[in-house]
Amino acid sequence: MFIPWAAYLWLIYSSAAVIYDTLYIQLRPLTFRYNIYEWKFEPYQVYAFFDTLKLNTEDQFVVIQSWLNAVEVAVILLVVLASLLPSRRVKYWSAVALVVV
Amino acid sequence: MYLTKGVIVWLVASSVIVIFDATYILNRPDTLPGGKYGQYFTVYQIYTQYDTLYGGQVKDYFADIIAYLNLAEVAVTFIGMLLSVRKNKKDHLKGAIWIIAASAFVFWKTIIYFWYDIQYMSAPTKWFAPDAIAFYYVPNSFWILCPLWTILSIGKRIGRDVLAVPPKPKKA
Lengths: 101, 172
What we know:
The complex is a heterodimer.
Chain A: H1 5-26, H2 42-47, H3 60-83, H4 88-100
Chain B: H1 5-26, H2 43-47, H3 62-84, H4 89-117, H5 123-126, H6 130-164
Helix pairs in contact in B: 1-3, 3-4, 4-6
């Protein structure tokens, strides 16, 4: 009611991409080229040519962002489920929560 | 109007402090003790004892990036407040949404800052010493708690209007 279907689609697509990204970051260096999970993260082997930050395991920002991404996906999942409940008030606050997340 | 007096006071006070903070960060080393503008920023001589990222001794541009984002957030807040004082009620709603968005940015950015700053905290800050709580944790926590309160306060007021309108009946 407050959340359009296109937004639901975006949230599902974005959450899947974010979970994949979180796995790539948290499993480093096993996800790098010539390591055990290399083939599961082939897009990142290409991406690394353009953005080397994710290759730097010393950089804290990428790790923090990755954990926060995981938190955001968890919140999105809860809020999306809540938005399917019949209460209008819950649907409204779910929409507000999605704006914040 | 969807903004309470308390929210307006917070947004104005926060914007002034944030501009002062960004001026300090972006003009280092001139704003450091002994610098050209050092005398205007003496408060940071206390703060940098607890947060070395602000002191300018470390080569890390994170604080600079945060300062630029802070300024962008002040601009978004300013636009939101301008829309909120216009006569048109639709503009009030748009302004409130701009401020909710800006508050969400502030909330998440402060969490990222706290987390990132762990590597630059001084020993008293890491060990939650009472002076570190007073000069580091409490002041910074305002930018986590107040944006959340702002979002809830504005959200409640918008909700009152939105939920008062009965839903449109579904077409058969």
